[in-house]
Hints:
Blueprint: H1 12-24, H2 31-47, H3 50-58, H4 68-86, E1 121-122, E2 133-134, H5 135-146, E3 150-153, H6 160-171, H7 181-204, H8 219-232, E4 237-242, H9 247-253, H10 259-266, E5 287-292, E6 298-303, H11 312-328, E7 336-343, H12 344-349, H13 352-357, E8 371-376, E9 379-380, E10 383-384, H14 385-388, E11 405-409, H15 413-430, E12 434-439, H16 457-464, H17 469-479, H18 487-506, H19 530-533, H20 543-553, H21 564-580, H22 585-598, E13 602-607, E14 622-623, E15 630-631, E16 644-648, H23 654-666, E17 670-675, H24 686-693, H25 696-700, E18 707-711, H26 726-732, E19 739-741, H27 746-758, E20 765-769, H28 783-788, E21 794-795, E22 808-812, H29 816-827, E23 832-837, E24 839-841, H30 845-853, E25 860-864, H31 874-880, E26 887-889, H32 902-917
Parallel strand pairs: 4-6, 4-7, 7-8, 8-12, 11-12, 13-16, 13-17, 17-18, 18-20, 19-20, 22-23, 22-25, 25-26
Antiparallel strand pairs: 1-2, 3-11, 5-6, 9-10, 14-15, 19-24, 21-23
Amino acid sequence: MDRFSFLNAAHTAFFADLYDQYLQNPDTVEPSWRSFFQGFDFAVTNYGSQDIVSQITSGDFSCDHVSEKLHKEFNVLKLIEGYRTRGHLFTKTNPVRERRTYSPTLALENFGLSQADLTTVFDAAKMLNMPSSTLADIIKHLESVYCQSIGVEFMYIRDPKVQDWIKNRLDVNDNQPSFSTEKKKNILKKLNEAVSFETFLHAKYVGQKRFSLEGCESAIPALDTLIEAAADKGVEQFVMGMAHRGRLNVLANIFGKNTQNIFSEFDGKDYDDDMYFDGDVKYHLGLTSDRTTSSGKKINLNLAPNPSHLETVGAVIEGIARAKQDKNYPNDFSKVLPIAVHGDAAIAGQGIVYEIIQMAKLDGYKTGGTIHLVINNQVGFTTNYLDARSSTYCTDIAKVTLSPVLHVNADDAEAVVHAMLFALDYRMEFGTDVFIDLLGYRKYGHNEGDEPKFTQPILYKAISKHKNARDIYAEKLEASGIIDAGYVKELEAKYKSKLDENLEESRKKDLTVITPFMQNEWTGFEQVSDDVMLQKVDTTFDKDKLTEIAKTITELPSDKKFINKISKIINARKEMYFETNQLYWEMGELLAYGSLMTEGYDIRISGQDVERGTFSHRHAVVKVESSEEEVVLLNDIKDKKGNFSIYNSHLSEYGVVGFEYGYALASPKTLTIWEAQFGDFSNGAQIMIDQYISAGEDKWNNQNGLVMLLPHGYENQGAEHSSARMERYLQMCAKHNMYIADCTTPANFFHLLRRQMKTNFRKPLIVFTPKLLLRLEDAVSTVEDLANGQFQEVIDDPKVSDKKAIKTLVFCTGKVYYDIIKKRKELERNDVAVVRLEQLFPLAIDQIKEIIASYPNVDDYVWAQEEPKNMGAYSYMLMNFDLVKLRLASPKAYSAPAAGSYERSKKRQKNAIAMVFDKTLFQ
């Protein structure tokens, strides 16, 4: 049967239209037709068959015009396409076991070719940057390029220019390394360091966990080459994140961490810092170091600290990188290179990876391309790779952003380095992500005290007999005459001698010194305890300057047309500032940002729907009606010294909070804010909150000023839109780790945000922000409150004129205050005073004592909350507030934060408020 008979079965006008579409934009044509037309163009170019074009367009095309030779050329093109598309499935990339089998294979017969064609010369070779060549030579080239130690996935990339760049790059030298003798010796040197470091620790610290790199040691020369080559291409700063596997090796042999300190950590010595620092295990610690490359380039290296929770650090390093780019290289992101080192089980299994990958091309989060390196052990703890994912490869997440993947045999050190150089060139050329899947093995169990043969006896029988990458490469170099038989032993002896010397010096010291991460960004900042956190900070701001800011943010450009509702909102802001002097929440917030910008601070806000605000109150970005052009009034402030950036994030909490934590870590002079759509959605980022935000300073000596705005308040919206889970944050509070606030006035929120920047230290700030209060007439402030006030940790009852008449003193926090005073007014209960705790941690105990003492006749002390008894701040107050015995006024304990029924929710709220005024009621 004629293989091209399908061409006669369709209307010729269809071919003509489709061919015209292909000529205008190849990427819009279905891939199989695109391949056909590429082959057709090739045939026209090489056989001068222009007559075929006119025949197609005139409807006179017949398969009789297609010669058998041309049929074969098409088949060779299909073969080339097959290698490019599926060659990675048939590579020699697994060092310790046979690869799975895939079909169809790349056998000639599957492409309409046979052994008889091997000596035939085909012009299709020109597609491979070869002259016309025999089929045998074409296959030899394709096998070398696509089926040796490197397998490449890239044909899903939709941009023909990118595809062509990759194809041309791979065709150079048959995609084989071509290094100088000096470079080969350097690769061997770094391999020796990697191997010798692990064997030294294995001998000196028997059975101790170190999560060795053995089985993937070629990562060390690859990373070393990456840094050296990237510096030559203009990269000045590197930001790296990795899990525990191989971390100590990277710290010692890439970042230059003094092994004396590593040995002190192995010896379990206490730290030299007792006040602010509890420390972390040695394979979680980070480091910042400066390095001069072999070509004389000075570069900055950063390895971020991380917890055991795999892949979390990936989000953090992207935020760090973006902060460095925004600050130092806003016009050239390529100068900061993020490097994410993954495990095979983690990159396939952890959902945060997808969240991070989806940031790669978003305006608020892109970093100019990340190089991803997977340390592929082919096992996760005890789980076989076949049980760890449904996808073919652990790196299939790369297809989300159409990023190329290079699968490399970890035993072939030169191929690994070659692949890394490809990845660097790709990133620098296109500014997008690229993945390297370093396929190796794990010499021991998950840790060095584990027995892997329990679960993988066959694999570990093979591993026990397998030579390491250094010895394999040394044999290769010795066979080629580059080194002699004693060369490696000399390298090993020299390196181990230095380790022995450092171990001896280490054991002369009593304490371990931990160098805080990225301290060059934190010059002028100090670590402080909770007593300093409670000291008053001057947050006043000149009223005239405040008025100038207000003018700017309450006037829309006159030459642009906006929808009527936006015009009304902006005009209402103007009225509240310049006419009524009754400022609602939005003005307190926006004026805080504007005032800080005039003082030289940048503002960065991100989260879901933050530009407008979940509750349509912020409108920091307004859009022109006819064009959707964005207008940001805050950036029009005269003489501003800082910039305002606000980004609607994708629908992610975990990844975005991690990103913003990293941003704040690298930019302490930026007010970095993440806002939850609703406060309870922050539990999607619980790992970031637990492992970084609440404990980062205690574990790693890292300050961080990230602000989390969590909408919180019971307004009959059901279980998921009421509580920000205040109790969870309060449970994590201790010593000096963060601020927790629940403000009730725009002025106090204004001063809280300003205080966050005006101190010489940084703490995470968790703010339970209102919903109802955004537009509540009682919850307003004056211009003078903003200009001349300060943050009030505790607010005494402003409506009490005779404190001696007070019998019941109520303590509360947040929006419930307004519910209580409304009921008090209804009941005409002048014997009840209500005190607001605006800052829950650290508690301003001294201020509270003074307030209690000022009410001499109180015999009833109440803690009131709208949250159920087992939630909210009650348990925290029981633990931390013992000045008086508190009576509780709240709904009873429930498993869900709020009722789904509107009527039931109202009833519970009503009963809780009633309890404030009647001590005989209880729930």
